[in-house]
Design a protein that fits this description.
Aldehyde Oxidoreductase, domain 4, 6-stranded mixed sheet, 17 helices, 24% strand
């Protein structure tokens, strides 16, 4: 996938009016070179900004909304530069923006993805430019009407104001502004001192619809002539259909077809991952299809490789660690020599179970496809990957494929995949009718793309001054890139060479070992940061405890004086130790780290740099017999300039609670090569009673480029909780989920 273009380069805008006199401003499709701003296909329904004659301002949100609040944040960025009247702003989700450039797709909106907290950083320059350009047109239209210069005018809350106090609403100027040509020189965006909306709290633009039940999700969509489709997948990864008798199913009134979806040739990928063999029932409605599905006489044949549970993978990891690493990720100095000389040596192993996404909205897709065009409505996080999948299945020209992006009921990486869309398109083509595909909850759990299993072996050493002189971190995991990338690249999703304490310890080794698994894996919230941070931060806590050092002071001493370390990969190019130290200190101070603590209460700390954001957690807990009480939680974050503080706080709170829930009980298990979990009953998410009543969030004021917020609060939450549990109980749990092990050790 191409990187989003830098909007600070040449700016090209196109303006036009509509029959109603509305002003429409967008970024037109241009030559596909890195020096051009990706533009706007002006012939689609939705555009970045549209001002109606009545003053209503419609702003298009380009990135998929999966609960991270991106529709609100993107609209605020544009509305700020436009000086729009926020109560009169409506936000419309944009389709995937694509035009036909000589038979190849041209991405007209630039970045359109919900992954890795990249949406706000990518939108920052793009949308400010569009908003500033629209405001300049309105100013020129007012100047022409009043026969004065732009310098004598200003804008505020959707109104142009003259020096003498005269006012014209944007709606009154929309038609005249639509007839002007855009400025041919780059426009200067506002200075931070001029911000009215950015940095101020704004509720989610979808909040009212969500709480009143009016929010539109993909699962709500329907075509009048569509057939409902439900599927039963082979319970064994890589397995095949052995027997099918659909006689009883076809007798159910309303059933139209029973179809098979065979496993395609592995050399010909039909989507982002290999499909599972399945049988689909097509009927007039979903209930009828489910009744018929239950009447199928179907038997499956296991695949060549049996999916192994975590216990078997533990043994495989032990074998892997006895040999050379698959990838020596980083080597600084000589750890072996440093350890020989060191008076203090430490070692610990950590283990992380396979975990599922457990999205509230199961995979589904509404598809209409024929020889002329395709329309896809589905919960997706990567619409370009969905486009590639549909184009590969249909052979249609780029501008004949429409992918709509309704709000998704969750995500966390599951909807980066396109297997469910692939199935829907294949069924629609074969049936010759539109298809509404719905996965059941059981199918969603049994055929997820799971968080990889991993075992981490850490060692460290310290000198007589109790200063760390050596560190090794070895990981054996079932890489999520297996089957997607060459084996030599599998480590890239599992380990980050510049993650701390790299750059802080003179003798350091990072190494990765491949574990094979038949179970499908995929992206998970915060990717490998979620588990790597747990191992690192808990081991640091262990080292500090054994050295009889305060965990906060130990971490701050390790981070040292503020400086910028090189950081390769997402979130770079630098990691600022001063920013990480500051959020760590803020979290500790807010929870009362240096004050006297109630008897039986444990306090824990952890911090991490994730995708350009600096986040620290401080947690206070106690155990009341077999009940864990989380008394206080503080999350301090430096996310650069924050567009919507309320949204950022909500994202950090959500990530914290999700981190706790995942750490306590969430685990995917297998029996006879099949996933055991079938729903929330046997995949227990944390309840409200098990979670803290509040999470205090501290946002550091910053002038730095904005980072995202959705992933950032996840990695450091679980290790802070585990460290607090140890401080309160002296029980050190080195595996996730931790609850069963904690109960065993208490």
């Amino acid at each position: 996938m191409k990187r989003p273009h830098d909007a600070s380069r040449r700016r090209f805008l196109k303006v036009f009016g509509t029959a109603t006199g509305a002003l429409v401003v967008g970024l037109p499709a241009l030559a596909r070179t890195p020096d051009e701003l990706l533009g706007q296909n002006l012939f689609r329904l939705n555009l970045y900004v549209r001002i109606e004659p009545d003053g209503t301002t419609a702003i298009g949100a380009r990135d998929p909304e999966v609960g991270q609040g991106i529709r609100t944040a993107e609209a605020r960025i544009l509305a700020e530069e436009l000086d729009a009247d926020w109560p009169r702003v409506i936000v419309e989700p944009l389709d995937l923006g694509v035009t036909n450039a000589g038979g190849e797709p041209h991405w007209t909106y630039g970045h359109q993805m919900a992954s890795g907290s990249t949406s706000v950083p990518a939108a920052w320059n793009d949308l400010r430019n569009v908003g500033a350009a629209a405001r300049e047109l309105l100013l020129r239209a007012a100047a022409a009407r009043w026969k004065t210069g732009i310098a004598n005018l200003r804008t505020s809350h959707g109104v142009v104001i003259a020096a003498d106090g005269r006012k014209l609403g944007y709606g009154e100027l929309a038609e005249a502004a639509s007839k002007l040509k855009p400025a041919n020189v780059p426009l200067q965006p506002k200075t931070p001192a001029q911000y009215v909306l950015i940095g101020q709290d704004a509720g989610d633009v979808d909040a009212r619809d969500i709480v009143t039940g009016h929010q539109h999700y993909a699962v709500d969509d329907w075509f009048g002539d569509a057939l409902a489709a439900v599927v039963a997948h082979c319970p064994w990864p890589g397995g095949r259909l052995a027997h099918l008798d659909d006689t009883a199913a076809l007798k159910v009134k309303g059933v139209e077809k029973v179809m098979t979806i065979p496993v395609p040739d592995p050399e010909r990928a039909l989507g982002t991952q290999q499909l599972t063999a399945s049988v689909a029932v097509l009927a007039s409605d979903t209930w009828t299809a489910l009744q018929a599905l239950a009447r199928l006489d179907v038997r499956w044949q296991p695949g060549a490789q049996t999916a192994q549970g975590d216990e078997a993978l533990v043994d495989a990891a032990a074998t892997a660690f006895a040999s050379d690493p698959t990838k020596a990720v980083r080597t600084d100095g000589d750890f072996t020599e440093a350890a020989k000389r060191a008076p203090h040596k430490f070692a610990a192993d950590y283990r992380f179970a396979t975990a599922g996404h457990a999205d509230l909205e199961p995979p589904n897709a509404l598809v209409r496809v024929d020889n002329q065009q395709a329309l896809i409505i589905a919960p997706v996080q990567n619409p370009r990957a969905t486009f590639d999948t549909v184009r590969g299945l249909t052979g249609l020209a780029p501008d004949k494929i429409t992918i709509q992006l309704p709000r998704a009921g969750g995500g966390f990486g599951r909807f980066l995949e396109t297997d469910y869309v692939t199935e829907a398109v294949m069924l629609a083509k074969a049936a010759g009718k539109p298809i509404k595909l719905m996965w059941t909850r059981t199918e969603a759990f049994a055929h997820d793309t799971y968080r990889p299993f991993s075992v981490h072996k850490l060692e460290a050493c310290a000198d007589r001054k109790r200063t760390l002189t050596g560190w090794t971190h070895r990981i054996a995991s079932t890489s999520r890139l297996a089957g997607r990338e060459p084996r030599a690249r599998w480590w890239l999703s599992e380990m980050h060479p510049d993650d701390l304490p790299a750059g802080l310890v003179g003798n350091l080794q990072y190494a990765w070992f491949a574990l094979d698994s038949a179970l499908p894996r995929g992206s998970y919230r915060a990717s490998s940061h979620a588990v790597n941070a747990f191992a690192t931060e808990c081991f640091l806590d262990e080292v500090a405890h054994q050295l009889k050092l305060d965990a906060l002071k130990f971490r701050l001493a390790l981070l040292g004086e503020p400086r910028k370390l090189p950081y390769r990969g997402h979130g770079g190019p630098v990691l600022d130790t001063g920013r990480l130290s500051w959020v760590l200190q803020l979290a500790a101070d807010a929870i009362g780290w240096s004050k006297s603590h109630p008897q039986g209460h444990g306090f824990g700390l952890a911090c991490h740099f994730t995708f350009g954001g600096y986040v620290a957690h401080a947690v206070e807990v106690s155990m009341e017999k077999t009940r864990l009480v989380i008394h206080n939680v503080v999350c301090a974050a430096d996310l650069g300039r924050v567009v919507n503080p309320l949204g950022a706080r909500a994202a950090l709170v959500g990530a914290t609670l999700d981190g706790f829930s995942t750490a306590l009980r969430e685990r995917i298990t297998l029996k006879d090569g099949q996933v055991v979990q079938q729903g929330f009953k046997d995949y227990p998410l944390a309840t409200m009673a098990q979670m803290p009543h509040d999470v205090q969030v501290i946002l550091v004021p910053s002038q730095e480029h904005p980072a995202g917020a959705f992933d950032m609060g996840f990695p450091s939450a679980a290790p802070a909780l585990a460290n607090a549990i140890f401080a309160g109980t002296t029980v050190r749990v080195r595996q996730l989920p931790m609850w069963s092990e904690l109960m065993r050790l208490l």
